[in-house]
Design a protein that fits this description.
Strand order of the largest sheet: 8-7-6-1-9
Number of strands: 9
Oligomer: single chain
Strand content: 15-25%
Helix content: 25-40%
Shape: globular
Structural class: alpha/beta
Length: 251
Amino acid sequence: MIGQGYPDTPGLHSDEQIAAWRKVTDAVHAEGGTIFAQLMHTGRIGHPSLLPDGLLPVGPSAVAAQGQVFTHDGMKAFVTPKELTEAEIAQTITDFADAARNAIAAGFDGAELHGANGYLIHQFLAPNANLRTDGWGGSVASRIRLGVEVTTAVVEAIGGHRTGFRISPGNPLNDIAETDPSDVERTYTSLPAPVGGPRPRPDEAVAQGLAGRVRPQPVHTPRTDRQGLPQPHRGRHRGHDRLRCDVSRQP
């Protein structure tokens, strides 16, 4: 699963996973709750030991992040990722849309795209991680293209009213460097804004549907156990939960 960057993270790319998630979503709905699946692709944040044999983490460019990631064998340094080809970018967009459809099939009320915290969509936005000179890098319009096209595909798959987008402008997590305030402003104000609402604020879930856009309800990420299985949430906002899911499938 090329988008998996941590041990034992759950996914939404198989019939077995859909059936297993249905038990979770049914339980949330039985208590009157609403639940979104957070769909993420970690991109260069990962390690070959977490992937099937012979695969490397991928990214917009062959630029390694500084730092380490937790693996089954302890902390390991990030490696230089494989630069995504045009065909692989197209497949990644398809993977997000398929995962969103699977989320609805599993009983989730919607899907939140993870465009924050230094993961793949954020890597395409960030000038230090995205050194491309083709239609996916360089200008603001090219750097936001992956996020826009993923959002478009997901909205077409499940509807704007079910689609959220998480951002974190200027967040240095996972070796992201967005240090030019004017570039940050141009980049993030170029992303679609919710209808009738303000521009997205850092590190919050906002609706990014291209039709019928709405702001989703407050959400919470529950803890997981060592096997990556969701644990019961006991917090104040138990009516509005989200669960993080790997979007990718094995190539």
